[in-house]
TrEMBL record:
Disordered: annotated span: 60-92
Protein name, per record: Neprosin PEP catalytic domain-containing protein
Keywords carried by this UniProt record: Signal
N-terminal signal peptide: 1-20
Biological source species: Leersia perrieri
Compositionally biased residues, Basic and acidic residues: 67-85
Alphabetical list of Pfam families matching this protein: Neprosin, Neprosin_AP
Superkingdom in the source lineage: Eukaryota
Domain Neprosin PEP catalytic: 149-403
Length: 403
């Protein structure tokens, strides 16, 4: 877990941990992991957020990424000189995109140049988790992507995907909603997956989007998140900066912080643009939000299959259905409304694109749409000049047709 930052809470928490009987730890390994997580916060400039978050401004070389054995002793690399270019003059991809706002910057807070914002992990964040060892990670048996052979373990999807070629990135715009999540054991997210490998233990993924997760964040706000794994979520990778791996280079975006504003049913729509692509020169996978600066990168040597390229890209929504009281969860996907309601009401992805071998952005051709349980969460798509390839997706979960 995150261990590269100077300690905060260490003395006080160490004393409290030695006497508490309420911490859900099982053995010395979980206790050691908990203490390591609590030792993450630097005594540096801090920014307070209206939603209660604390953002620490951390020197880039002290960020969590550089605790990874393959990255130890390194510093963030320079941004690539060349970003993906729009092929064939496709104007749908060339629009000006809004740089997303976050709650912690609403009051004018910021981190100075030469630092990165890191959302502080608090004691109560870890205690909400079912396991300190698994804190910040997905359940290993829940694939998190639409498998071709199984959609078990309570994870349900409504996604568009492309497969069968060599992909070097993906881009889309998606609107952000305050989806209602029924219990702390569940979440609702909307994201891009960049995938390589089989759907066995060697699955590599890079993921980014927005997520409502009461267990992870302690509230019901939609938050910008990242994820990665090299072994199908078993032992590698994590959300955001909760483990070493992702290298952040941006001083304006805090990964894991709330996105503000959000879309309103029958009102203003607020969307964000996500671009993930593999730098042809150094091979790292970079993340960009809107038309602004890059957020950071996943180093190429973290991965096996994604060290070369991706063989699948997915766009869409995912929820956890824990079946409370034996019924389907009412946790919402997207806006909580079915795609047939259309613009201003349903959640959408638009301008779906992929990056080819020559660093060109191309329309996501031969896009396939699939919903695990259409009566609970559905998906419908199409094409027009303004939005390129697009789809509406989501739903309310439990209803008369989804008992």
């Amino acid at each position: 877990m995150v261990a590269s930052l100077a300690s905060l809470f260490l003395g006080a928490m160490h004393t409290q941990l030695s006497t508490t009987t309420t911490v859900p730890f099982h053995g010395k390994e979980e206790l050691r992991r908990y203490r390591k997580i609590m030792a993450q916060v630097a005594r540096l400039k801090k920014a307070s957020s209206p939603d209660g978050d604390v953002i620490d401004c951390v020197p880039p070389h002290l960020q969590p990424a550089f605790e990874h054995p393959k990255l130890r002793g390194q510093k963030p690399e320079a941004e690539p000189e060349e970003r993906p270019k729009v092929a064939g003059g496709d104007t749908t991809a060339a629009e000006e995109e809004v740089f997303p706002a976050q709650a912690w910057t609403d009051g004018g807070e910021s981190c100075p140049e030469g630092s990165i914002p890191v959302r502080r992990t608090k004691r109560r964040d870890v205690l909400r988790s079912s396991s300190a060892v698994r804190f910040g990670r997905k359940a290993p048996r829940a694939a998190g992507v639409v498998r071709r052979d199984s959609t078990s373990d309570g994870h349900e999807h409504a996604v568009g995907y492309v497969t069968g070629d060599q992909f070097y990135g993906a881009k889309a715009s998606l609107n952000v909603w305050s989806a209602k999540v029924a219990s702390p054991a569940e979440f609702s997210l909307s994201q891009i997956w960049v995938i390589s490998g089989s759907f066995g233990n060697d699955l590599n993924t890079i993921e980014a989007g927005w997520q409502v997760s009461p267990e992870l964040y302690g509230d019901n706000s939609p938050r910008f998140f990242t994820y990665w794994t090299t072994d199908a979520y078993q032992a590698t990778g994590c959300y955001n900066l909760h483990c070493s791996g992702f290298v952040q280079t941006n001083n304006r975006i805090a990964i894991g912080a709330a996105i503000s504003p959000t879309s309103v049913y029958n009102g203003r729509q607020f969307d964000i643009s996500l671009l993930i692509w593999k730098d042809p020169r150094r091979g790292h996978w970079w993340l960009q939000l809107g038309s602004g600066p890059l957020v950071g990168y996943w180093p190429s040597n973290l991965f096996t299959h994604l060290g070369r390229h991706a063989n699948m890209v997915q766009f869409g929504g995912e929820v956890v259905n824990s079946r409370p009281s034996g019924s389907h969860t009412p946790t919402q996907m997207g806006s909580g409304h079915f795609p047939r309601e259309g613009f201003n009401r349903a959640a959408y992805f638009r301008n779906l694109q992929v990056v080819d071998w020559d660093n060109n952005l191309l329309p996501a051709a031969s896009l396939r749409l699939v919903a695990d349980h259409p009566s609970c969460y559905d998906i419908q798509g199409g094409y027009n000049r303004a939005w390129g390839n697009y789809f509406y997706y989501g739903g309310p979960g439990r209803n008369v047709r989804c008992p």
